[in-house]
Amino acid sequence: MFPTVSHFIAYLFGIQIPLPFNTFGVFVAFAFMAGYWAFSKELERKEALGILHPVKRKMVIGKPATTIELVMNGIFGFLIGYKLVYALLNYSLFVNDAQTVLLSFKGNILGGIAFAALFAYWDHTEKNKHKLAQPKTVEVIEHPHQMMGHLIVWAAIWGFLGAKIFDNLEHWDTFIQDPIGGLLSFSGLTFYGGLICGGAAVIYIARKNGIKPLHMLDVGGPGMMLAYSVGRIGCHMSGDGDWGIVNMHPKPLSWLPDWLWAYTYPNNVAMEGNPIPGCSGKFCNELPLPVYPTPIYEVVVCFILFLILWKIRKQIKLPGMMFGIYLILNGLERFFIELIRVNSKYTVAGIPFTQAELISSILFISGVCLVLYSIKNKEKHANY
């Protein structure tokens, strides 16, 4: 497997280039890019149909940089310089353990001061370029797709927090042993936590910008399915622990690659399994028995589901129905993959279940209810 981008480059080209990027993080970034593309396309399409509308805003131009703006830019620059210069001066440490470097209090004071001055000076200079003798208020038009940058930041922040909270709830025993490490670790992210919290943040921002919740949910269905598919590539390639149960069954098809049927995830970032002979470094473990590579199954299935949603989106005329279909497909996919996936189980009234099974069942039922609601209110939304 490829816990870092450096491992992947070494595998492809046989050269060692020390880079401080883990494979999972890179694919999370790709997932956001994929979601950004799909969201933007849908926002543009719905605006062209007259479903969504641009928003008029008033803004003041020609003002010089205020003291608060200079201070905020200085603080932001200090944080970047404090960490960046320290990371460059301690590059080997940064490559081997970027998480510790970024989340610790270690940094370079002089680098922080230099970047603080640079950022404040840059803000001051840029504002002065457009300064007017008398600042004036102008009206600007913002199209729905132009707010995607704002939306993606909110989705990333709240999605990450939600993913961490749900993961720690799912692995409560481990969390109470090291709560600080559990909260600050970059690993251990639960998709549904990110979906719920990130989705709530997006709806909040969209509503503030004049987009009704059902319209925003419909926009997000295909994009979230695509982003999930892309993100799961990172789970598989890094071996982050989202694999399946032990699979010792013979391959059903002789031509099927071994890694697609049963895999031991060597060099996994979860550092689970037995030591690999002759391997030195941080990621030197391999599962003792092969397991179902469930992340790659989800990559394929969810990409197919995305294509289906993308194909039918123009035929969906009722608000809420697209997102309802997404919830149904998402719930079904995750529920059935849980049958062969490793996960913490809970037992209530003698019934064992995982967190994902519970939430996927709720999402499926919610999706059915949303579809029925859309049909029931067909006449009400005739001008959708």
- How many helices in DSSP terms? 15
Shape: flat
Low-confidence stretches: none
Distance between the termini: 48 Å
Largest pleated sheet:
2 strands, antiparallel
Chain-averaged pLDDT: 87
Please list the strands of the largest sheet in the order they lie side by side: 1-2
Classify the secondary structure makeup into a structural class: mainly alpha
Give Rg in angstroms.
24 Å
Helix-strand topology string? HHEHHHHEHHHHHHEEHHEEH
Kindly estimate the percentage of residues that lie in beta strands according to DSSP.
5-15%
Count all strands and give the number. 6
Number of domains: 2
InterPro entries: Lgt
Family: Belongs to the Lgt family.
GO cellular component, one term: plasma membrane
GO molecular function, one term: phosphatidylglycerol-prolipoprotein diacylglyceryl transferase activity
Q: Your description of this structure?
A:
This protein is mainly α and 384 residues long. It folds into two domains: 25-58 and 140-245 and 292-376, no CATH class; 63-131, no CATH class. The chain has 15 helices and six strands. It has helices at residues 5-13, 23-48, 67-89, 91-96, 98-103, 109-129, 148-170, 172-177, 179-184, 191-208, 213-238, 258-261, 294-312, 321-337, 355-376, and strands at 55-61, 136-142, 274-275, 285-286, 345-348, 351-354. The chain has a two-stranded antiparallel sheet with strand order 1-2. The protein has a two-stranded antiparallel ribbon with strand order 3-4. Strand 5 and strand 6 form a beta hairpin. Helix 10 (191-208) runs antiparallel to helix 11 (213-238). It starts with a helix and ends in an 8-residue tail after the last helix. It comes from Pedobacter duraquae. Keywords: Cell membrane, Lipoprotein, Membrane, Transferase, Transmembrane, Transmembrane helix. This is Phosphatidylglycerol:prolipoprotein diacylglycerol transferase. Belongs to the Lgt family. The chain crosses the membrane at residues 20-39, 60-82, 102-122, 186-206, 295-312, 318-337, 358-375.
